[in-house]
Amino acid sequence: MDEWYGYTGRIARVNLSDGKISIEEVKAEYLDLVLGGVGLASLILFMEVDPRIDAFAPSNKLVFAVGPLTGTMVPGSSRAVVVGRSPLTLGWGESHLGGFWGVELKRAGFDALVIEGESDNPVYIYVDDGRVELRDASSLWGLKTSETEESIASELGDSEVKVACIGPAGEKLVRYASIVSGERVAGRTGLGAVMGSKRLKAVAVRGRYQVKVRWPDKLRSMVARLYPSIMSFPTIQILSSYGTNGEMDSFYQYGDVPIKNFTEGEWDGIAKIEGQYMVEHYLKRHRACFGCPVGCWKEARVEDPRYGLIEGRMPEYESAASLGSLLLNDDPASLIYMEKICNDYGFDVISAGVTIAWAIECFEKGLIKIEDTGGLQLRWGDPLLIVDLLKLIGERVGFGYMLGEGCRLASMKIGRGSEKYAMHVKGLEVPMHDPRAFNGMGLQYATSNRGACHLQGLVMRIEQGERVPDLKIYRRFYRFEVEGKGWLVATMQDWHHVLESLGLCKFVQIPPGHVAGFYLLATGIEKRLPDLQKCGERISNIQRLFNVVAGVTASDDTLPDRFLSEPLKEGGAKGHIVELKPMLDEYYKCRGWDDRGMPTREKLEELSMLGIVEARLKSLGVNIWS
Amino acid sequence: MSDSIFSEEELRFEIIRVMKTLYDKGLVSALGGNVSARIPGSDSIWITPSGVFKGDLKPDDLIKISLDGDVIEGFMRPSVEWPMHTAIYRVRPDINAVIHAHNPITTGLALAGIELKPITVEAVVTLRSVPVVPFAYPGTDELAKLVAERVKGVRALILQNHGVVALGYNLVEAEAIVETLEEVAITQLVAILVSGGREPPTIPEKDRELVSRLYLR
């Protein structure tokens, strides 16, 4: 490629074992197959990492990537992604980051950063306008994330540097440790622990290049004139005013908000932890990621005799539910404090909340005993207890060590039938949308490559009545309906891979038909909407193949038994269970996979991927079709 | 059949001109309404974009699509009503231009359950019969199907709760139909209001006979 637009065309590769740093040109054929962002990162990981290795082995890699639209004037173009083998799912690992870090990486001249090997001593990577260097991080080891960011900015004498770092939880290999950058968090699947295992404390980035697009005037004109329609989506105003937690009340009406480890359907505490109440009582200021007209990010301030003065990120919906309703905690001030603990220590709020909920339920049932907890009496609705448990997880001490394993591994270690109450799919703790309220979400959880994921598809939006004619979603899909959900979930998963490949946020909700235009104007490369969808489908298949080699099988495409056999007795989803089997059959069929959930040769041929996949599987010594 | 008066390039300017005229007259709104024209001698159309302010479109904003909805040229998203436009072109080979406008008075009368009457010569000669299409969600196949079922032998339709559709051999004709619809609707509304709700007198049956004999409906 003579000149790159949208893409920078460059990848930085850092080997932490020998300190070697190289700059490579991006393979144009990769971008043609899967675009940038999560597509590029997924293909690099699939081609370079044996999925069967231990997540903490030096041969595991982390691939950070941004999309061709990241850092452009397209609304919501702030996103970056990181992938690697996950210590939590023991298969595909992937997490996304908003804010400003990804834009900075792009402005520093890179589409991706590949990190391999393992350092003997703590280090951090400093990327500065095309240069990459390794720096000593011994003095940073042990610091919390906010302290780390401040220390690096101070050391570099640059308050504008953007730092993505781990906290003590990542250093201590909490299996759901996150990567934090200025209150934005790549939270899921524990890739912060992979950074910890490599003794990589942070990736600090400073970029001053202008992101180059092919037709800037046309792109600016298109963006400017689309705002009236983009801002017309009904949820946008709620997200702007109250953040994602502004939707809790609406979710509750559907019976979607998990209560007491997904065992109950009604709870009065919702009124004190939902977004409008939180914003009206604790808002410090509104924030927004780069280029975002929505601004669902809020900062909170609370002064409470139990916790002192707390300033930090306002809990989003997932935090408010996983540390609130899921644990019967209706103390809003405590939620702000807990959010800060999770972000400062650097671990995922969803996995933490679900693992704690598992522990409390098992303690209540006598499956976890006081000897297991180090003397702690576990009970519902006790914010001080939750605060203590979160700190133990962050420090990885006492009962926090076990909780830091995540609910799947912890329940396997405890045994005694506690596995039944561990709410996870493929090891990833279930997020805060009860799939009994939306059948399609159940299928989405069961089939998402990184495990129970609410964001790879967000099918509940469609099941709430949204239509997406551009993706041929013309008719209304009712939430308890079964027929058509296999096609719907596959379609939406593929589409969300496209957004994540381009560097776009899903909450800005740009109609798909316009996205192809943005891509053309930014990159100068013509890919029509069906071409982009095909890229999304390839990404689904690549990640699936990674999981297949890692040992994930169709038997893992399932849900916790509670969702399949225990209807709620009250609330908006009363009496419903997820009818998974027929949806799953339809899903495999729509995907062109066999009944073991394996991508077929024919499908890969259709996607123009058979050659590259066969070569890779051969190099791994694997034959999945035998 | 096709309109060979305009080149493809001129057709795009013509679409922009029509959209601007209708916007200035209040017949399409900031975000509502769409226009398409069949490309002479082909199975492709140029259509206005979705979600963009309609009062100031540029030729670059238009999108060329096939009758299956595949984008052939342009970077914007085609109007979400493309299935309705293409459904019309499929069943009406004589039609080369389709306008979906948001005529407020025509749509308002339909909402009030009042049919357009043969109250002026234009209503009789230009509009003739104007079927009302039951409500279906915009942009859906269902709406396209309902329109296609009712579009044979007519020059205009009213979409319940939504607006109007006008057809033409070329854009000028379709534009004239949209304006005539609103003119007749306003005249009828004024007559009803000023007379205190009385049914306005229509052109006598014998004078409408010629039109009835000349046309199918």
Explain what the structure shows:
The complex is a heterodimer of chains A (626) and B (217). By secondary structure, chain A is of the alpha+beta class. Chain A has 26 helices and 17 strands. In chain A, the strands form 5 sheets. A 6-stranded mixed sheet of chain A has the order 2-1-6-3-4-5, sandwiched between helices. In chain A, strand 10 (179-181) and strand 11 (184-186) form a beta hairpin. In chain A, helix 20 packs across helix 22 (529-550). Chain A is globular, with a radius of gyration of 23 Å. Chain A starts with 9 loop residues before the first strand and ends in a 6-residue tail after the last helix. With 217 residues, chain B is of the alpha+beta class. Chain B has 7 helices and 8 strands. Chain B has an 8-stranded mixed sheet, sandwiched between helices. In chain B, helix 1 (8-24) runs parallel beside helix 6 (171-194), helix 3 (104-111) packs across helix 6 and helix 4 (121-127) packs antiparallel against helix 6 (171-194). The mean pLDDT of chain B is 91. Chains A and B meet through helix 7 and helix 21 of A and loops of B.
Attribute tags:
heterodimer, A: 626 residues, alpha+beta, six-stranded mixed beta sheet, four-stranded mixed beta sheet, 26 helices, 17 strands, 41% helix, globular, B: 217 residues, eight-stranded mixed beta sheet, 7 helices, 15% strand
List the helices and strands and how they pair.
The complex is a heterodimer of chains A (626) and B (217).
Chain A lengths: L9 E6 L5 E5 L2 H7 L2 H12 L13 E5 L13 E6 L6 E6 L3 H7 L4 E5 L6 E6 L2 E6 L8 H12 L5 E4 L2 H4 L7 E3 L2 E3 L4 H7 L2 E7 L9 H15 L3 H9 L5 H7 L15 H4 L1 H8 E5 L9 E8 L3 E6 L3 H6 L9 H14 L3 H16 L18 H13 L3 H5 L2 H9 L9 E2 L2 E2 L9 H9 L11 H5 L21 H18 L9 H12 L5 H22 L10 H5 L14 H12 L9 H6 L3 H11 L6
Parallel strand pairs in A: 1-6, 7-12
Antiparallel strand pairs in A: 1-2, 3-4, 3-6, 4-5, 7-8, 9-12, 10-11, 13-14, 14-15, 16-17
Chain B lengths: L7 H17 L9 E5 L5 E4 L15 E4 L4 E3 L8 H10 L5 E5 L2 H8 L9 H7 L4 E2 L7 H10 L5 E4 L3 E6 L2 H24 L10 H10 L3
Parallel strand pairs in B: 6-7
Antiparallel strand pairs in B: 1-2, 1-5, 2-3, 3-4, 5-8, 7-8
Helix pairs in contact in B: 1-6, 2-5, 3-6, 4-6
